[in-house]
User: Fold these one by one.
Assistant:
Number 1:
Amino acid sequence: MPHARNRNPSPIPEVTWDTGLKEMNETWKGAIACLGVAIFFVMTIGIIYWQVVDQPNKNWILKGSFSGLIWERRTQTLVFQTLTEDKTFAEIDVGNVGNPDGEVPFVRNLCWLNKTEFCYTWDSVAEVRISLETEEASETECYSVTWSPIHCHVDLKDCFSMVNVSWYGGAGVNTPSWPINDANISMQPFTVSDLRDNPSGFGSVLERYFLGSSGVSVLVAPNIPLHVGMESRQQFCLQTLPSMERMPMQYTVCVGHNIKAVHQESMQQLSTATRELPNMDVLRLPFWKLSANVDSRAKLERELRTFSNRLKRHHLGEGVISLDEHSTALLSNMDHSYLNSKRRTSKRHTRDIPFVKLLNISITLSPYLSIDSQQFQTSMQEGIEDYWLSLPLGPQGRPVPLLTQWKGKYSVKLNITNPEATNWFLDKVDILRSHLGMEYVILEGGEGNPFEEQSLHPPLALVGDEYIGLLADLAERIEDNAIVTSGTRSSHKPLFIRMSGVESNWSYSGLKGIIPSLLHHSLLGYNFFIPDAVGGSLSIEPVTDEELFVRWLGIAAFLPVISFQTPPWVFEKEWVSATRTSFVLNITRFYIAKHHDFVVPLILKYTEEWQKNGTPIYRPLWWLSPDNPITFTIDDEFLIGDEVLVAPVTEKGALQRDIYLPESDFQWQDTNNAQVFDGGTFLESYPVGLGDVPVFIRWRS
Ligand SMILES: *[C@@H]1O[C@H](CO)[C@@H](O)[C@H](O)[C@H]1NC(C)=O
Ligand SMILES: *[C@@H]1O[C@H](CO)[C@@H](O)[C@H](O)[C@H]1NC(C)=O
Ligand SMILES: *[C@@H]1O[C@H](CO)[C@@H](O)[C@H](O)[C@H]1NC(C)=O
Ligand SMILES: *[C@@H]1O[C@H](CO)[C@@H](O)[C@H](O)[C@H]1NC(C)=O
Ligand SMILES: *[C@@H]1O[C@H](CO)[C@@H](O)[C@H](O)[C@H]1NC(C)=O
Ligand SMILES: *[C@@H]1O[C@H](CO)[C@@H](O)[C@H](O)[C@H]1NC(C)=O
Ligand SMILES: *[C@@H]1O[C@H](CO)[C@@H](O)[C@H](O)[C@H]1NC(C)=O
C-alpha cells in the first residue's frame, strides 16, 4: 500500500543579517537586496536564453583526422562531414528515435574524456554509442553506431538522406534502377523474397550494404532483424521493430575521399571469406532455354532432337540446352523412381538416354516436391516426414509437413537442415547425372519462406532468407556445376547466379533494367551471373519485336553468359531467299563469336583482381571518374575492367545516342571504326546502326 512520506516541514531558520551588516543603514540594505535579486534574474534569464535560444544549432560530437560527426539539433540529424565542413558525406535523420515533441540538445558526451567514443542516453527511449574506428594505412574512417532501446516498445529507425547523394547497393527490385534513389519501397523485412509473388519487395541479390556517391558506405550488422524502406529521392530507412529482446540497431558508416576508395575498403569488411571461383566453363557456351510444352518423355526427346538439329542447321555452334523443372522431371521420369534409391534401385525406372548424353544440357531442380507426386506419398508411408519442412503438431508430436505453393501446385519444401534429407537430394542429383550426363544443375526456389508466408514462427536456422544460404551450401556440394537463382551473404561461393526473368519490353522492367541490374550484381560481388534470356523471358510467347531482340543481344554479348529463350530463327521470314541469310540469325552468330573471343578472355583477366581484392569485374563509370558527378547517374553504359567501355542503345527506334567517356587522362578508341576520342567528354548523338554496339577500348598513343 502506498504511503505518503511523513512531511514535517521545519520552519525556515531565520536569517541573521545582524552580525555583518550591523553598521549598515536600512537604505543600503534595501539597495543590496535589490541588486542581488536583479543579478539573480539576469542570470536566470541568461541561462534560460542559453539553454533554449542561443545554443548552437549544431555541435561536433566526434572528430577524426579528416571527417567528423555533427549533431544538428534543429533537424534532429547526425551529419557526417569533413572537418572543414565543405563536404557532407551523409545525413541521418534520427528524429524517429528521439522524442518527436521536444528538441534534444544532445551535447553531453557521457563517455567523456574519450575522444573516440560518444555516448548519449535519450531519455527513456534509447542509448546511442558511436565509436570512431580508424585503421592506420586505411584511407577511410569508420563510425560504428549502436542504438540500444531502453524498453521493449521502442522502434529504432534511422533514415539516410538521398538528397544530393546517389546511393547504390541494398537489394534487387522488380524495376532496377542505378542509382537506387528512385526506388519506392514500403518498410518491410530486408530479406530476399520471390519477386513474382511479392513484386513490391526486395529480391536477389541482397546485401546489408549501401554505398553513397559522396564517399560513404553503410554496413548493417548481420545478426539483427532488419527492416528497410525507401522513399524515392528522399531517404532510405533502417528499422528494427520493438521486441522483448530489445534488439539493438547496429551499423557502421565509413567515409573516405571518394566513392571508389570507400567501396574498396568496405568490400573487405562485407565479405571476409576467401573468394572461390565457380566453374568458368559456364562462360564459354550460350545457354538455350528449351521451351517445350509437352507432357511426355517421348515428345520431349523429340523436341530436344529437333532443337539440337536446328542449332546445327543454323550454324549456331555449340551450346548448353537448358531444361526447365517440368522438362527435367519428364526426362528423368523422376516421379516413378522411388525415394529410397539405395533399397530399390531406380535403374529399372530411369533408363539411360544416350542421345541426351551427347548434348550439353542443364537441368533444373528445386527443393519443392508436389504432394501429388509418388515420391511424396512414399515418404509419408515410410515415415520420413522430417525430410520436409514441418510443424511438430501431429499425433504423438509427429511432424506434419508444411504445405506451400510452388509453380501453382501444393508442395512441400525440403528440410534443408536435415542431413539425411540433403543427402537424399544429392543422391538424386547423382542418379540423374549418370542417366542424363548433364553439365549443369540449376537450383531454383531458395527464395520464399513457407513459415513466414503463413505467419508461423520458423526455427531459428530458417528465419528470413537463411534458406538461400543453406541451398547455396547444398549447391556447392554438387561439384562445381550448380547454378542458383538467388544470393545473399554468398558472393564468395563458387556459384553462378541466374538472374530473375524480365519483361519483353523497353522499360526498366525489361531492356533498360539490364545494365542497372548488372552493375548491382557486380557491385555486391556477384560477378558470375547468367542474365535473363535475350528478349526477356517473362512472357510465354516468343519475342516478336526484332529490334528489341537485336538490341538486347547487343547487351547480352558483353555479359558473362548469353542466354536465349526465343531462338533467332523465329525471325526468319519466308521471303528471305536461300542465298541471303536472315539478319537476326547472322547477327546472333556474330555476337556469340564476339562473346567467345573478346568478352570471355576479358572476364577471365579481371577475375584475378576480383579474387584478390573483391574488385568488381563489371564497373560503373564512376569507377574511373569517382569525383565527377556526371558519372553517378549513368545507367546505360558500363565498363569491363578498366579498359573496355560498352554503351549500347536502349531506346526503341534510336539510331544514335549520347555517350559519356570518363577520365580525362585517357583516350578511348571506338572498336567499330577506330576513331579516337578524349576521355572526360560527351559524344552527342553518336550514330549507332541497328546491329551495332559502341564499344570503346582504352587507347594509349
Ligand atoms: C574509449 O573507448 C573505446 C571503446 O570503448 C576504448 O577502446 C578506448 O580505450 C577508450 N579510450 C580512452 C582514452 O578511454
Ligand atoms: C543539395 O545541393 C544543392 C545545390 O548544390 C544545395 O543548394 C542544397 O542545399 C543541397 N541540399 C542538401 C539537403 O544538402
Ligand atoms: C511511393 O509509394 C507510396 C505508396 O506505397 C505512395 O503513396 C507514394 O506516392 C510513392 N511515392 C512516389 C514518389 O512514387
Ligand atoms: C559440350 O561442351 C564441350 C565443352 O564444354 C564441347 O567440347 C562439346 O563439343 C559440347 N558438345 C555439344 C554437343 O555442344
Ligand atoms: C528438420 O529435420 C530435423 C531432423 O534432422 C528436425 O529436427 C527438424 O525439426 C526439421 N525441421 C523442420 C523445420 O521441419
Ligand atoms: C513493360 O512491361 C511492364 C510489365 O508488364 C509494364 O508495366 C510496362 O508498362 C511495360 N512498358 C512498356 C514501355 O511497354
Ligand atoms: C553478317 O554479319 C556480319 C557482321 O555484322 C556482316 O559483316 C556480314 O556481311 C553479314 N552477312 C550477311 C550474309 O548478312
Number 2:
Amino acid sequence: MPDTKKQSFSEYVPPKVWRWNKGDDSKFANINRPVSGPTQEKELPVGKHPLQLYSLGTPNGVKVTIMLEELLAAGHESAEYDAWLIDINEGEQFGSGFVDINPNSKIPALRDMTNGQRVFESGSILFYLAEKFGAFLPTELAARTEVMSWLMWQMGAGPYLGGGFGHFYAYAPFKIEYAINRFAMETKRQMDVLDKRLAEHEFIGGADLSIADFAIYPWYGAMARGLLYEAKDFLDVESYKHVGRWAKQLSQRPAVKRGQLVNRTWDDKGLEERHSASDFDASSRLI
Ligand SMILES: N[C@@H](CCC(=O)N[C@@H](CS)C(=O)NCC(=O)O)C(=O)O
C-alpha cells in the first residue's frame, strides 16, 4: 500500500497564498495558530512570594527554575517564588492574563511583584534575575560580555536543536531525510562548539557558574546525557566528552536537580507547581 503521507509530501507544491489547515493532525498542530493574542479571558493566579513564574518544565522552562533554586541556595531569600503551571497543550499560553505578561504566548514568563515588572523570553528572565540579585553574571566588562555572548548563542542556536532537529527527527509525522540531515549537521556542529569551549573552561562563561550555564544546560546538557529525542546513538552524543563532563557536573548540583522538577507533568517525579521550598520534601523525586 502506498504511504499517502509520504506521497503528499513529495507531491506538495506550495499554493500562491498559504492558508491555515486547521485539520492538520501533526504534533503541536492543535496549539499553533498563525495569529497572536488571547483566545480566552483568564486571569493568572498570584501567590505570596516576590516572584511569580508561569511556566512548564520543558528545557526553556527549567532554565529559570534552575536559576531560582541556585539563587535561593546561594542565600538570596527574596528569590522565593511561586511556579504556576501553564499547560501549553491545553492552550493556556493564550489566556488573557498570560498574554499580558508575554505577548508571544510562550513559557516561561515572570512577574516581579516587588515592582510589577513583567519579563518574557527565558534569556531575558535569566538576565533580569542576574541583574536584580547581582549574581551569576560577572560585573567586569570582558567576563560579562563573554557570558552574554554565550547566553545569546543559546537563544539563537537552541531552535535549530529543538524546533529543527528534534521536530523533524522525533515529531514530524514522517521522516524527511533532507530536514533531518540539515538539522543533525547543525546540532552536531553546535555540540562541537560547546565541546571545544568546555575543553578549556570549567563552565561555559569561564571559571564561574553563570546564566550561560543555566541557559545551555537544559538543552545541550540533556542532549549530552542522552535524554533528548532518543537521539543518543544517532548523534553519537558520547563523543562530546567535555560537554558530557560539564553536564554531569551540573546534574549533580542539588539546586539544578530541584529546578528540573518544577512544573514537570509528564512523570511522577515532578512537582506540578512549586510554592515553597518544602514542596520538594514530600517527594522521593530528586532526579
Ligand atoms: N525563545 C523562547 C522560546 C520559548 C518556547 O518556545 N516555549 C515553548 C515551550 S518550550 C512554548 O511555550 N510553546 C507554546 C507554543 O508554541 O504555543 C524562550 O526562550 O523563552
